[in-house]
Amino acid sequence: MKRQALIPAYIELTKPRILGLVLVTTTLGYYLGGQGIKAWGGFLYLLLGTACVCAGSGALNQYLEREFDARMLRTRNRPIPAGVIAPWHALNFGIFLALFGIGILYVKANILTAFLSLLSAFLYIMIYTPMKRVSWLNTTMGAFAGAMPPLGGWAAATGTLNFSAGILFLILFLWQHPHAYAISWIWKDDYKRAGFQMLSVMCPDGQRLFEQIASFSLMLVAVSLLPAIAGISGGFYSFGAFMIGMALWMIGKKFACTQSMEDARNLLKATVVYLPLLLVFIVMDRIL
Q1: What angle do CA 175, 209, 150 make, to 5 degrees?
Q2: Which helix (H) or strand (E) element contains residue 39?
Q3: How far is CA 64 from the centre of its chain?
């Protein structure tokens, strides 16, 4: 295959949309921990190292799930099941990127940041990925891994972690549940075909899934106000966080009432928009 055709395939192997969200939340942690971005060189190294670890983790996830991806309509055209990239090439690519990224974080940031990145990759690859075939609680385990990036950003800026950093972790941890549950409902037939034990597959009537969405969305509203209590943001942020949190909860409530694919997609879109908006409110709160 021509090299020009392989480049987009390798990019897809890194799961660029997840990578983008990880970089946004890493920036959030770095910005709040350092009270702004003062050392741009260190910040850019942080983003580079984090991007490499996240990209490598995405590639290793696709390597481990290649047989299951081949059964799903949503993923059967991914580079490995489609035969564009050989499995062992993806394995080597993922290992190299992950180790290279951890090395950058260790040398250019600090050992705590490197460890948090390693821990996130381990939870995602070795715990969350195989757990998808065992228990619907894989969503919660995946949320632990996905909530690590702001901790890494905070650690890179300060060299330590504290209660305020934990608040960011909680926000990301709670946010991932309505996000993941919306995806699992949209693609529940695909997940069933692949044998993944998602909540939408285990409880096809959706009742427990809708309860989970409502519960985690409401908890997210409450926890998103904690930065103001902890003194790392002010009134502008609090108002904005409350409004977008309640909007997310209302969209989730509407989805629970209609159980339609359209409203599931609306919830998914709302969760994707939520994090960048939260970052905007934090930055604007510092400026105003």
Answers
A1: 15
A2: none
A3: 19
What does the pLDDT look like over 235-272, one tens digit per residue?
Answer: 999 999 999 999 999 999 999 999 999 999 999 999 99
Q: Which CATH superfamily is domain 1-161 in?
A: UbiA prenyltransferase (1.10.357.140)
Question: Can you tell me the distance from the alpha carbon of 178 to that of 160, in angstroms, rounded to the nearest whole number?
Answer: 30
Reduced to 3 states, what is the DSSP secondary structure of residue 35? coil
Paired tokens of 32: 């709040």
Q: What are the angstrom distances between the C-alpha of 69 and each of 28, 61, 217?
A: 32, 10, 29
Please choose, from the candidates 177, 159, 60, the residue with its C-alpha nearest in 3D space to the C-alpha of residue 116: 159
pLDDT digits (tens, 9 = 90+) for 127-158: 999 999 999 999 999 999 999 999 999 999 99
Q: What percent of the chain has pLDDT over 70?
A: 99
Using N-to-C axis directions, what is the helix angle for 149-158 and 16-33, rounded to 10°? 40
Position 3 confidence tier, pLDDT thresholds 50, 70, 90: low
Where exactly does CATH 1.20.120 map onto the chain?
163-288
**Sequence ranges of the chain with CATH classification 1.10.357.140:** 1-161
Burial 254-281 (b: 16+ CB within 10 A, else e): ebbeeeeeebbebbbebbeebbeebbeb
**Token reading at 16:** 């660029």
User: Does domain 163-288 bear CATH number 1.20.120?
Assistant: yes
